[in-house]
Input
Amino acid sequence: MDIEQAVLGRRPEVSDKQIIEAGNKLIKESKRVTGFGLRRAVGSCGDSKRLFKVWQVYLSSQSTENEHAVSTLPVELEETLNFVISETTTKLKSLATELNIAAVKTAEQRVAAAVELANEREQAAEAEVHDASITIDDLEAQLTSISLELAQCKQALQLAKDETEGQIKLAGEFNLEISTLALQLNAKEQETENLTHSLADAEQKINNVKTEASELKSEKAELRTENKRLINEVSNLTNQRDKQLSDLIAKLDRPIDNAA
Output
């Protein structure tokens, strides 16, 4: 049926016939007929709203024709159709009852299977909960142990921190003491250096004294030798004097006559 309408000034880009052919093609391809589907089917032309409206008008016209054709059926055919419909309805009711019974049994079986599966899952879940409880207890025990160790570590850390601070303080005092000792050591080193110079001077003086003492010893030895010589000489002179004196006395003691 051609329902193409003229548009003032120009004809539509796509004719109603093309739209209807495109719609029937989509139905044959088991595709849903939409405005955009029709537009793609006619080569991406026209307004999708107009295309879909033309298709709906076509469907409405087809429905009206079918209804008119049905209303003009003969009486015998209509009675036969009614009998067939009655028989079909009875069979459909029987089939529906059987299907309902089968569906109920299937549903009961599915329910039983679901209940069994749910029980199995519940038992598995209870087992998992039990295992999880044991795991949680173990983890709580580990957590308690770790917390205790952490507390001990914190205490040890605090003690180490306090000890470190004390050591730092002692180190500061020690550094101060070292600085003081370093100053004292420098003073001692200076004093030692001065004493070393003084000792060197003293050693030089001692060496000089030793040299003088050695010279004095030599001179003393010479003096002793000279003294001994002088003593011997004096002794000799004394002996000569004593002899001369004895001779003189002896001469004086002689008689004068003998002297004459």
Summary: Residues 155 and 181 are 37 Å apart (CA to CA). DSSP finds five helices and no strands in the chain. Residues 1-72 form one domain.
